[in-house]
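Thread: quick sanity check before group meeting

JM: Hey all, I'm pulling together slides for Thursday and realized we never actually wrote out the predicted structure for the chain we discussed last week. Dropping the sequence here so it's in one place. If anyone has concerns about the input, flag it before I start.
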Amino acid sequence: MSQHSSPLAVTPISLSITRPPYGILTTHQRIQCTFKKTVHKLGYLNPAADDENLEVGTKLELPFWLAQDLSKRAIVRVDIPKVYKESYREILQADATVVDLHKIGPNFYNFATHVIIFEHAESKQIMECLMQTFKERFKRIMDASQNHLQNGTNDIIGKLDDFEKYLFKRGQESFKDYQQWQNRKIEKITTSEGIVNHKKRKRKDS
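JM (edit): ok, ran it. Output follows.
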């Protein structure tokens, strides 16, 4: 199955977050690749060696957009970043709500949706972990966004990846709009002045 036809590459979460500015930032993020073919005259790209060429087996971190292009031409194999490997997935599965995703990777969710297009053996497990992590953390993010004046909220924000921070901000804005609607003055139903005067006249006449 080709990279473009992968069912894992088209999911609700990937479609919702793979858009500017997240998509642009992610395609420039670096990812480790292993060369499957010798590339001549580009040895200078590898600071760890003095060879004129990039030999088979050479490992280099390349921008995602370049890694994707070279992978399509079977020049490199794109390696799974360590933050999506089994050891990290086990930490998230234990209790995703306490993990500092910003420290692990500020584009944790979005970058994962790009990584899985290379159809590693672990791609399915990565996506399942990604979805479960998001589900577990989403409620806490929304709760925090609506109680942002309470102590401890800053600690929560500091552990969010960029997409979660975006959701937190939207949650704050929505809650603020709701409060303004709830406390509105102009649209509140009040007794008309004419009815009030009519009632006063009736009391005087009685």
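AS: nice. The two ends are 90 Å apart (CA to CA). The CA atoms of residues 3 and 34 lie 18 Å apart.
JM: adding both to the slides.
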